[in-house]
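RECORD TYPE: protein structure
NAME: beta-N-acetylhexosaminidase
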Amino acid sequence: MARFSLILLISFCAALWNNSKAQSKIDSLLPTRGFCITAPKAQKIDDFIKFIQEELAPRQVNTLILRVDYNYQFESHPELIDPEALAKKDVKKLVKVCQKNNISIIPQINLLGHQSWASTTTNLLKVYPEFDETPAVKMPEKYVWPNPDGLYCKSYCPLHPGVHKVVFELVDEICEVFESEAFHAGMDEVFYIGDDKCPRCSGRDKAELFAGEVNEIRNHLALKNRKLWIWGDRLIDGKTTGIGMWEASFNNTHRAIDLIAKDVTICDWHYERPDQTAVYFAIKGLNVITCPWRMPKFAVAQTQDMVKFRQSATSTMKQHFQGIMQTVWSSAESFLDEFYGRNSNKVAEENTSANCFRAMFTEINRLDK
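PREDICTED:
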């Protein structure tokens, strides 16, 4: 009996050692293996938890960014809540399953930009129109791009004296309920900043305004030892690189890269081609994560690039190449329908977020062997 127990103990220790060895290798290759998606609606929580358990955890995903925005029953600002928003008990279900599977949750609320979409003003500016950077620009009944107002998404004014009290109360509450050590502020595709008609921002340097807002958010989070994550497009010069106005900046915010705190994590997204701008962010001393979306072949190339960057970099630079993260830009419900093949009437396509997700993690698994 004692001999049998010893054999079991040795087998158990060997299994732990092998698992630790495998984990150590993948952590060395790609410290961050992320998945970013809109937070599910309350009635679909259990479906999403099943996906976490059966798909994310086995693929060794260790970071989950949930774009929450106003899909939570905020106690600090109930006037901003979406209909059918997540309750605290729903969030705690997500927290529990992620903690069980060693997945860090990072909630996101879009700050600065993305305060409207198409013809709809989102909750912050709808309730607090005084925060609008461009109140003279009216929302169209039918949205088209391009348009005479240059309207893509509205921004709030970063210098409005009342805006940070509201948004920071939201940030603190969402970080508390998700028990998170980091917060994602979005801050991508900011086209309206330093508007000529804004009484506070007119004439100011757009790079300084953008950097000022990044640092303001970062410093607030630091009070409770939390870290800031943002998308990286506004920190790339779209003209010099030829990357363009969507995945990079045409309004001179790119110079903010030298003005922001070095402990801000950059989510470097490129969806139409696998541009290697992660090197640029790392050279600037910023931690960077490469983010694909719907092109499987690009996701494979971006995964290979990130591993190559880490393997070929100096010890100082290596630490900044943090990994890779699949992004999804449909609702969680639509993605799960696509992933599980529930859209039987939809024509099969190669370039989808579900196929990209599978290709990226298949490549990670291949590299990990």
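COMMENT: Residues 107 and 125 are 20 Å apart (CA to CA).
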